[in-house]
Write a structure and sequence with these properties.
Length: about 350
């Protein structure tokens, strides 16, 4: 773990680079040709978007319930991504959580740097993931904090400004956890498992969750870099509140990158690597990335739901048969998450490397 004690180089907030007004980005942010986005490509014009699911349809005993479960199941197999509406989270809270985080990133640099993070826990204000010296960096800053289990919460790492940010995070986190519990049930049943299967498998009441507020400042050369490099999320599932004004998230579908068009007041849900492992690849985590933007900054809030750290997770026995042998070797999340924490976002290389054979 020694290599995760501190960053290999001094950390420069991307926001300060952006605000310097330079017309050229530093070399460290310039991606190799093959990773650069094609900003005028088909991605934006592609009308085929990620599926939209109305969670109002889950009311028990209704005809819509089966159709809704089916829609989620199809989305988890074909896209690894979907948007949900009618999710029961109040619009007022969605606006409030965005406002407090916008307020945080507008604080003076020194106030933010008081919360500077290190790679030991990643909690706090940061500008990189991965500890490789000389790595090409992404055009984004973030704030990361652990929300669940309650016993792992470290309030010293939570910002105190702007006023009410802590209460708002608490309240928002509760709502996110509630939504995750519902979606775990839906995914369990649609995989043919007992409704409580997935929640139990990932630790029951001891599951983990973290909030990552992503801030992507304006970028003078968005064609050369990325706000966030291609990756799949290592945990169980992610609930993303995207910016309500500025697009940027792209999802890989086949060989193409599809730009997500967030619906107002919707959440974007995506399958994490652990669901791919538990479902023995019936459901798949999917690569996604964020493109930078020359004219507007962008804020998104990702709520990561992940397993209790010390449970070895492999394919559910119920989903394994002679015809469908287990595709992955069991691993604890403690071990699993070290990969991204060392190497930074690297597509889907990690879950691929778990392949049993
Ligand atoms: C993430 C992520 C997407 C976004 O934080 O893992 O994929 O739109 N964020 O910021
Ligand atoms: Ni992600």
């Amino acid at each position: 773990m020694d290599c995760l004690r501190d960053w290999p180089e001094p950390v420069v907030p991307v926001q300060s680079l952006s605000e310097s007004g330079a017309a050229v980005i530093p070399d460290r942010y310039v991606k190799p040709q093959s990773e650069r986005p094609s900003l005028d490509s088909t991605a934006d014009k592609n009308i085929l978007g990620i599926p939209i699911v109305d969670l109002g349809g889950l009311a028990e005993g209704t005809a819509e319930c089966r159709a809704t479960m089916r829609a989620i199941s199809d989305a988890c197999q074909e896209w690894g991504f979907f948007q949900v509406v009618n999710h029961g989270v109040s619009r007022e809270l969605m606006e409030r959580i965005r406002d407090v985080w916008r307020g945080f990133f507008q604080l003076p640099t020194e106030a933010k740097k008081a919360y500077a993070n290190t790679p030991t826990t990643y909690e706090g204000y940061g500008s990189r993931v991965g500890v490789q010296k000389g790595a090409i960096l992404d055009w984004g800053d973030y704030y990361y904090l652990q929300y669940l289990p309650q016993s792992a919460r470290n309030y010293d790492k939570w910002p105190i400004l702007p006023i009410s940010i802590r209460d708002t995070i608490e309240e928002y986190g509760r709502e996110m956890a509630r939504l995750c519990v519902i979606l775990m049930k839906v995914m369990s049943v649609s995989l043919g498992l007992d409704a409580n299967f997935l929640q139990k498998a990932i630790g029951g009441d001891d599951v983990g969750a973290a909030l990552r507020a992503n801030y992507y400042p304006k970028c003078p050369q968005p064609d050369l870099t990325l706000g966030l490099s291609a990756h799949s999320d290592p945990g169980v599932m992610t609930v993303l509140l995207a910016d309500d004004q500025v697009k940027g998230l792209q999802v890989r579908k086949g060989g193409e990158w599809i730009t997500v068009q967030p619906l107002p007041h919707a959440f974007i849900i995506n399958v994490g690597d652990q669901i791919q492992v538990l479902s023995n690849a019936t459901y798949k985590s999917v690569e996604h990335r964020v493109v930078a933007n020359a004219s507007s900054d962008r804020l998104s809030l990702a709520f990561f739901y992940y397993p209790k750290f010390d449970l070895p997770l492999g394919p559910a026995r119920e989903l394994v048969s002679p015809d469908r042998p287990p595709l992955y070797q069991p691993m604890t999340y403690n071990e699993y998450r070290l990969y991204i924490r060392k190497n930074g976002p690297k597509g889907k290389t990690q879950v691929e490397s778990l392949k049993a054979m």
